[in-house]
Design a protein that fits this description.
Helix content is 28%, strand content 41%. By secondary structure, it is an alpha+beta fold. It has one domain (3-161): Pnp Oxidase, Chain A (Roll).
Length: 162
């Protein structure tokens, strides 16, 4: 793949994550995988994806034992998906908490001063995205593929190193 194509694919992965905004955070809990929805703050300039999390939940312990995580972003209506593998850390950075505190956080905490809030930072190593032209086109292509016995063209699928 040419470097221009790789740069374009990395740009698109970041754009899709930003547009979708929510991810299923997958952590390892012993021999089980656990997933939960999280509101993502995308920071391409610092190659980071941030979340606010609660110290009273189990994510912190799971990440301390197994820092490798997966983030799954999905917008099924537009047939756009991103899967990110990376390393997570949890900190009590109060300045970052105040910076990230926004409307979605108010569903969980009264304000940014809540002592239970932590910052979960994911440093992405690689991502894979599926970016189709839209659900109507995709379904039409799927139906045509079923009738003709060919594989549908569902848009771009790329793996990128972050």
């Amino acid at each position: 793949m040419a470097s221009n194509d790789a740069a374009r694919d990395i740009d698109r992965a970041w754009e899709l994550m930003h547009k979708i905004g929510f991810a299923m955070l997958v952590t390892q809990d012993g021999d089980k995988l656990r997933a939960r929805p999280m509101s993502a703050s995308i920071d391409r300039d610092n190659n980071a994806i941030y979340f606010l999390t609660d110290a009273r939940r189990h994510k912190d312990d799971e990440i301390a034992r197994h820092p490798q995580v997966n983030l799954s972003f999905a917008h099924p209506g537009d047939q756009k998906y991103v899967s990110v593998s990376g390393t997570a850390t949890v900190t009590n950075d109060r300045a970052k908490i105040k910076q990230l505190f926004s409307t979605p956080a108010k569903a969980w905490w009264d304000n940014a001063d809540d002592p239970n809030i932590r910052v979960l930072k994911v440093d992405p190593q690689d991502a894979e995205f599926w970016d189709s032209p839209g659900s109507i086109v995709s379904y039409v292509k799927m139906a045509a593929a079923a009738v003709t016995g060919t594989r549908p063209d569902l848009g771009d699928n790329r793996k990128v190193a972050m």
